[in-house]
Amino acid sequence: MAYDIFYVSKHIINEHDWEQFRSRFPSAQKINNVKSFSDVKKKAFTKLFWMVWDDLEITENFDFSYRVPEWDQEYIHVWLNDTSYDGVGLFSKDAALSEKEFEHRFYVNKKEIEVVASIPKKFEIFNIDSYDEYLNAINVSNTGMFWIVFNDIIIEDSFKFDTYISHHDFYNRNENHLFLNNTAYDGLILASKNKLISKKEFDHRFLIDKKEWNIVASKPKQCDQYIISNHDDYLEALNSSHTEMFWGIWSNVSVTNQKIFDTYFSHHDKQSRTENHVFKNACNNQISFVNGVVLFSKNTPVSKKEIEHRFLINKKEYDIVASQSRYPKYIISNYNEYLNICQTEKQPLFWCVWPDIEIIDNTIFDFYFDPFDGKYDYDRSVNHMFKNKVGNEKSYISGVALCSPKKVVSKKEIEHRFFLDKKEQDRLVSSAKPYDKFIIDTFKDYEQALASSSTDMFWLIPPEVAPLPDFDFSLQFPYQNNYERSINHVFKNKDVEEDKYNGIMLLSKQLPISSREVEYRYLIEKKEYDIVASELKLYDIVFISYNEPNADENFAKLIKQFPRAKRVHGVKGIHQAHIAAAKLATTPMFWVVDGDAIVEDSFKFDLLLPKHDTDIVHVWLSKNPINGLTYGYGGVKLLPRDLTENMDLGRCSLDMSMSISNKFKVVQAVSNITAFNTDPFNTWKSAFRECVKLASRPVDPKYQEETEDRLTAWCILGSDMPYGDYALSGAIAGRQYGIDNISKPTELARINDFEWLLEQFQNPSPLA
């Protein structure tokens, strides 16, 4: 018969914890408000019974199946609670426990079982801000000790709240424990329900009788911060701040020393926490405590007059410059934005910065008219304009403005960025932003540039051109030159046959262009400059390899001579590999070099084609190292990028090049040696594939004899060359396979499946 299991608590058991326990042990019973051992044993029906306190978590492998022999039942059996024997116990109804034994879970007549049956639940955590909340925590906590986390501290990430004090440790379980809050013991507390903290101790966070742990568990929260313009703002901060001290930042200053916000006075330092602390402020070149940032104490309110004059009478001063008197700064794009600021801004002046200028003298924003100096009354009531630079020209047009809300200008003045009634300051503080640059290939690219450009004009650079090193992108037109800013400007590009206006362009947002103009790189309405700004980029080179033994060596040689070369490796399928190469390329045409190709030193990859030839597949000649033939097999290719990337895999030709375009051109120049004879399989495979093509595809009658001669040469020449016998074997087998399947495209397509080819090599047909 199983022993009774009692889940017990000196208080009301947490229902969530009870449900979890009962889900594992359905026969368990709960007992609330246990005062003595007899409260439990009188509930038992079995001679022995289990007692499980509600501050324990039972381990996964413990199942209460332990049985006590008759001769052993006089002892209380206790199991490990992590490392202490103050957890699960198995008791006899005949046992008698003293009040002290029961309280401390330390039994005189016991037998300790060295098995971990439970681990202590972590002490409960309470976020506490007031003494009443502390008193409530004592009443509701389900653990004999609990954590007090004050609302003005931040717990360190490294602190895990895993401190445990055994029930056997009577002294420490009845003590309050303090942990370091940065450097002071005024933060986290592990409080005992048996040792009441007085209100005075709580308010000062200074406990008379306590244990201090040299462990940094928390750091102080920064005090609340408020922007203060007037006495009402101060009163609002005084009433709403969650921290006993709070920062007052005057609305007309910018904080220049953020470190001051780390200032902290311990709760033990009651004097500092009841004082107001003032830091220095800079106004132009003058430094004083007027307008200085203040760390206010809720315990020492200040008067309306002190707030109005930004100068506190009773304060502690710090010789630290923490702020600078500054006017607010706005980026203004249109007249409505300007008017809204004039209507809402509380300061006497504000900075107006146009979106397409760059500030070259940031110290200008420290420029300030001391509000307590009457000689500046006039200056605070007018608009001020500073100089702006466009190219080599300096003027007050589109310059930074220091505006008075009392001196509102017209819409026309904002639109022309030139104020009629102003005070001119002979100081150059800004320059026109360089026009944005965009690589634009499609009309969608152009639309995105039009929408995202931060400047009224922007540069269009087609992806197929490269700007010349000496071309100057610093061309700019003054804001008042509306004609030049409202038209499109085009520059010459070194094209294949002649210089054309199809390269770099400076476009105006005021004169949008059409999709056709973007596509053809030709603008209808434009201003032409007889300046060569760009040249066509050399086409990308893509090296395609699979498992060729000499591929790494061949690519290393290629990239040493042509660093712009890229590589596609290991893509299964000839067509798929070429699609991957097209996606890697960025130019409208791209070169393809096969993995077994050793490129001739004289080959330069510098051909550029006129636009009308960019839909043609170009193939160069290659030398065959086995039979001495020189023709297009294995030669370097120049392919149209878009046509290659979008080739229809559903109707791919046996010859990959024919799948891309029906326009094909053989260039009568040798590009490389096709060094396919690197091992038996690769030699056989290459010969087999080429001879299937030669034997099976339709040939123009005038090239019939040339094709047959090539096929014959593959099948009879080169047996004395390295791996020559494998080349002959593959050629003969390929010729036969091509003849046998001449009208079977599905069978012929197998030659692009390298796994199938390996099977044919390893298990040759008897005819081969």
Q: Your description of this structure?
A:
There is one protein chain. The mean pLDDT is 93. The chain is of the alpha/beta class and 768 residues long. It is 25% helix and 29% strand. It folds into 6 domains: 4-120, Spore Coat Polysaccharide Biosynthesis Protein SpsA, Chain A; 124-220, no CATH class; 224-325, no CATH class; 329-431, no CATH class; 436-536, no CATH class; 679-768. It has 23 helices and 42 strands. Strands 35, 36, 37, 38, 39, 40, 41 and 42 form an 8-stranded mixed beta sheet that branches. Strand 35 (540-545), helix 15 and strand 36 form a beta-alpha-beta unit.
Q: Could you say which overall geometry the principal axes of the C-alpha atoms support?
A: flat
Number of domains: 6
Distance between the termini: 83 Å
Question: Can you tell me the residue ranges where pLDDT is under 50 for at least 5 consecutive residues?
Answer: none
Helical/strand content category? alpha/beta
Percent of residues in helices comes to 10-25%
Question: How big a fraction of the residues is strand?
Answer: 25-35%
Q: What is the fold named in CATH at topology level of the largest domain?
A: Spore Coat Polysaccharide Biosynthesis Protein SpsA, Chain A
Rg, alpha carbons: 44 Å
Helix count equals 23
How would you sum up the major sheet? 8 strands, mixed
Number of strands: 42
- Which CATH-level-2 architecture of the largest domain? Alpha-Beta Complex
CATH class of the largest domain: Alpha Beta
User: What oligomeric state best describes the polypeptide chains here?
Assistant: single chain
